[in-house]
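Q: How would the structure tokens look for this protein?
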Amino acid sequence: MSIFARFIGAAAIATAALNVAPVFAEGGTLVIASSQVPRHLNGAVQSGIATAVPSTQIFASPMRYDENWEPQPYLAKSWEVSEDGLSVTLHLVDNATFHDGKPVTSEDVAFSIMTIKENHPFKSMFAPVEAIETPDPLTAVIKLSQPHPALLLAMSPALAPILPKHIYGDGQDIKSHPANSAPVGSGPFMLEEFTAGEAIVLKKNPNFFIEGRPKLDEIIIRIIKDPSALLIAMENGEADIYPFMAGAQEINRLSKVDGLEVTAEGYAAVGPINWLAFNTESPKLSDVRVRQAIGYAIDRDFITKALHRGVSTPQRGPIIESSPFFDPSIEAYDVDLDKANALMADAGFGDGMELTIDYIPGPKEQQQSVAEYMKSQLKKIGIDVTVRAAPDFPTWAGRVGGHDFELSMDVVFNWGDPVIGVHRTYLSDNIVKGVIWSNTQSYANPKVDDLLNAAAVELDMDKRKALYAEFQQIVAQDLPIYWINATPYHTAYSAKLSNPPKGIWGTMHPMDMVEITE
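A: Here is the predicted structure in token form.
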């Protein structure tokens, strides 16, 4: 029998019918179905779903977050923040070891945070960290150049995996280190097998530092690129969880399957926005009037109500509309073809132009379908669009990260706090070729830089809101991006699962408490 195929017993159904307490199986295998193809498994130098899901099982982090956005102990059993906000002291547990048996120490924490600061695409996440002192093996003191309101959240599993210094500190380039595909962490699961583009097999860490965890024996992340095959795997019980599901057809179809639950919980800290990115270095798109014309040509309501069948909600700006920092007064660019055509003529393109649009392969409804809609819609303002497909995610990422694009569909996350997930897209010092989900639009506005840098250190909530409101007004006029919708992520999971990953990070969080009922 394939490692992916699993027998579905009838005990859980009988238990539910009799309304008695569920019986938990000893251990068991959890199969996660995914269309996401990771390039490697080290979340310290790579962002995104594909890497974060396995990385958060393999690596532990200083802290973890509960469903109420409150930080909880993990590798750090406690912590203190100084009154001036310029120092955070972490007190580590004394029994954590890496999968090779070496103890986790403050040196590993210091090495990891500084490595993330230097190499992760989210440059603003640890930018204020000046140094990390290690007065003893279980104490790490983070020294900051300025207050950092998002620092604790930045030490979550999806953002701050603690790496073993004795492996990664050997002088090799961290981004291409061979251990990225064969990582050694201190998390609840250990890597057993990583077959690129096919599967990731994780085994229970028998020496995990939290007693009684993990509950499972094994997690298999099965990569299924064919959307139909992925749905069939869930329907047939060959997979137990399908996270980051965004298509209306998928959501509705799996909602009707006996033995499956479908929920929108688990994405509160993600803040996913589906958008159209402009390469502002392109001679065709460097004129803001062309970008604004495209904005006025697009019918956001048609996309969310017709193409997405009502499961998506409109998104009008760079900060997710569910955030307290969102400013609802910004220019929405409701469809206005007369204004769009006038702007094209003013910009000197009254006779039209040609553009190419890329999209992320896989989530067709959110990406390819919208790109194809752009082709027909932009023709109304004289733009002849060529839709350029990519055979896989790495190809698309290489194009966009390498700034080899004109227009591109994209899905980018807010990551809980604007400092972490928003700043990276708009700060001019984050224009870095070769890094996906940075400022790939090559957008630069000194006033925006000043506002974001001020918001990054402001601890007063009302003042932060005012800074972000002004930022949103400016970028809505500059329009380096046309924001379309909040991606309607859902998770389908087997009703046999106890403690399914529905916290603020969903499956990008250690699944050490997940259990399978018999």
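The CA atoms of residues 256 and 262 lie 9 Å apart.

Confidence is low (pLDDT under 50) at residues 1-20.

Upvote if useful.
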